[in-house]
Amino acid sequence: MTTLDAGRAATRPPRGAPTRPGPTFPRVLAAEWTKLTSVPSNPWLALGTVVVTAGTAYGLGLFVRTGDGRSGSWVVVSGYVVAQLGFLVLGAVVGTAEHTTGTARTTFTAVPRRLPVLGAQAVVVAVAAAVTAVVALGASYLATTGPRAGEAPAVDLAVPGTARALAGFVVLAVAVALLGLALGMLLRRPADAIVTGLVLVFLADFVLAANPGAATDTIRAALPSAGARLLQDDAALAALDTATHGPQLGPWGGGAVIGAWVVVAFCAAGYRLGRHDVR
Amino acid sequence: MSATTTPRGVRTAAGARTGGPTFGRVVASEWTKLTSLRSPWWTGLVTVVAAGALAFMFATASSVDPGFEPTRDLATGLMLAQVGPLVLGVLLGAGEFRTGAARTTFTLVPRRWPVLAAQTVVVAGFALGLAVLTVAATVVGVLPSAVSRDLPLRLTVGDTPGILAGMVLLVVGVTLVGYALGTLLRRTVPALVTALGVVLVLPIVLAMAGDPGGGTMGAAPPHSVTALGTIGAFTPGTAGQLLTTPASYGPMPGMPDVGPVGGGLVLGAWIVLLLTVAAVRLRTRDVR
After folding, report:
1. CA–CA separation, B125 vs B119, rounded Å?
2. 8 Å CB contact of A81 and B208
3. Following DSSP, what letter does each residue of B61-73 receive, concatenated?
4. Any CB–CB contact under 8 A between A236 and chain B?
5. Gap between the Cα atoms of B275 and A51, Å rounded
6. Number of structural domains found in chain B
7. Euclidean distance between CA atoms A78 and A137, whole angstroms
8. In whole angstroms, what is the distance from residue B212 CA to residue B217 CA?
9. Is residue B87 one of the residues assigned to a domain?
10. Measured between beta carbons, which residues in chain B are less than 8 angstroms from residue A93?
11. What is the mean pLDDT of residues B197-211?
12. Taking CA B88 as the corner, what is the angle to CA B86 and CA B89, rounded to the nearest 5 degrees?
C-alpha cells in the first residue's frame, strides 16, 4: 500500500501553486509598467504636460527682459508652474486608479504582501516622470530659443546655479509625482489626492506669500513647495534667503524638505496599505 | 376581487395626480441627493475651518503693522479656501456620471435639461449657505487680533459690506464654475484638473508673466493696461479675485479698471457660458 501510494504521488502532476517563485519584485514591476503604459490617458497626460510646459515657458519667455533679474535658466524651467500639476496628477492617478475601479482587489490578491506593489508603482512613476520631465525640459529649451535670442537672457552654465536649476526641474518633477502617488495610495480617491497635493506643493505657498511674516515664512519653508527652490539659480536663492523672515534653506534645503515629505507620505501610505483593508 | 381592483384604482389615481416629473419635484430630488451625501458636508466643513484659520493667521501676522486694519485681511484667505467650493462643485457635477446614477436620473426625467437647471439651483443654494458660513468664519478669524489691538471691527461702513458681499458671491460663483465643468466633462479627474488649472493656476501664471521684478515687490510703476493684464482680468480666477477687491483699491497691475461689479459680471458670464455648453452636450449627446 505504501509503495503504491508513494509511486502514485510521484507520478501525479503537482497541484496548487506552481513551483516557480510567487510574485517576485521584477514581475510586479513589469505588471505595473504594463498597467501604466496600457491606459491611454497616461501617455496623453505626459504629452499634454510636455506641450503645456513648453508653451508656458515660451509665453513667459516673451515677457522677460535681460535687465529684470531673471536668468536664462529661469526662462527654460518657468513652465514648471503648470507642469507640476501634470506630474502630481500622474502620480495621483497611478496611486488611486486601482482603488476607484476595484482592480485593487485583484492586484492585492495576486500580491498579498502588498508593499511590493507600492514599491513597483514608485519605480514606474519615477521613471515615467523623469522621462517626461527630460522631454519637457528639452522642449522648453527649444521653445524658448526665440525669446532667448531676443530680449530674454541666454542660458549660461557659467552663471552659478544654472546646472542645478536645470537638473532640479527633473528632480522636482520626480519628487512631485512620487508625492502624488503616495497621497493617492494614502487617500485612495483621485479628487482628494490631487487637491491635497496641489495645496501642498503650490497653492498654500502662493497664498502665504501674500502675507510675509515670521509665522507664514516658517510654514512656507516647511511645505513641499519649498522644493521649487531647486529651480532657482544662486542669485535668486540669495534674494529669497534675504527676503524671508523664516529659516533660510540654502541651495539644497528646499530639496531636502520635499524629499522628507515624500518619505513621510510613503510611510503613511505603506502603513495604511499594509495594515488596513483594501476594498 | 375588491383586493385586486383597489391597488389598480390607487395606481391610476397616483398617475393622474402627479403629472410626471415637475420641476419642483426634480429640485426636491436633487436636494435629497446632495444632502444625503457625506462629501458635501465634509468639503463644506473643511472650507469653513480653513477660511477661518487662514483669516486668523493673516490677521495675526499683519496685526503688528502700525496701520493694521482688521477688515483688510478678510478676503485674503479665501484665495486658498475657494479650493473647497470649487472641488465641491466638480464632484457634484461629475458625480452622477461617474457612478452611473445618471442613467436612472435621465430615464426618469427624459427631457434632461430640468435636471441641469434643478442641480444648478440646488448647488447654488447649498453654496450660498456655505458662503455665509465661510464669511462668518473669516470674520470670527480676524476677531482676536482686532480685539488685541482694541480696534473696532466695523462691518457696516466703508468698503467692508462690499467685500463681504463679494466673498459670498465668490464662493457661490466658484462652486457653480466647478459644477458646470464637472457636468460638462463628466469625469472627476479631467474636470478637477481643468477647474484647478483655469481658476487657480492660470491667474498665477499670468501674474508671473506680468510681474517685471522676478517676484520681488519693487516700487509700484505707474499703472498701465497691458494685453496680459486684460487677458488676466477675463479669466474666471482673477475675475473672482476682483469681486472681493473694492473699487477704492484701484485696478490690479496691468488690468483694466473693471471693479468688483465687472469682475462679478465676468465670473457670471463664465458660469452661463459653461452651463450652456454643458446643456448642449447633455441635450445632443448620449448619457452612459
Report:
1. 10
2. yes
3. HHTTSTT--GGGG
4. yes
5. 28
6. 1
7. 10
8. 9
9. yes
10. 189
11. 81
12. 65
**Predicted TM-score of the model (pTM):** 0.84
Residues in chain A closer than 8 A to B204 (CB atoms): 81, 206
Q: Which amino acid is at B141?
A: G
Q: What is the ipTM of this complex?
A: 0.80
Q: Model confidence over B14-38: pLDDT tens digits?
A: 445 566 788 999 999 999 999 999 9
Chain B contacts of A229, Cβ < 8 Å?
none
Residue B196 to residue A70, Cβ atoms within 8 A: no
pLDDT in tens, A106-115: 999 999 889 9
Of B58, B87, B209, the CB nearest to A191: B87
By Cβ distance, the residue of B79, B91, B208 closest to A191 is B91
pLDDT at res. A1: 47
State the Cα–Cα distance between residues A113 and A122, nearest whole angstrom.
16
Is residue B79 classed as helix, strand or coil in its secondary structure? Answer: helix
Could you tell me how many CB contacts below 8 A there are between chain A and chain B?
A: 92
Q: What is the DSSP secondary structure assignment for residue B247, as one 8-state letter?
A: G
Q: In chain B, what residues touch A239 (CB-CB under 8 Å)? A: 214, 216
Q: Is residue B11 part of a domain?
A: no
Buried b (16+ CB within 10 A) or exposed e, B159-181: bbebbbebbbbbbbbbbbbbbbb
CB count in 10 Å sphere of residue B183: 30
CB contact under 8 A, B61 and A194: no
Gap between the Cα atoms of A183 and A190, Å rounded: 9
Distance from CA of B95 to the nearest CA of A (A): 11
Amino acid at B212: P
Helices vs. strands in chain B: H and E counts, helices first:
13, 0
Residue B7 domain flag: no
**Short-list B123, B105, B126, CA closest to B282:** B105
Q: Which triple of cell numbers denotes residue B286? A: 448620449
To the nearest whole Å, the CA of A85 is away from the closest chain B CA by: 8
User: Is B141 a member of any domain?
Assistant: yes
Would an 8 Å CB–CB cutoff place B192 in contact with chain A? yes
What is the chain A residue with the closest CA to B202? A82
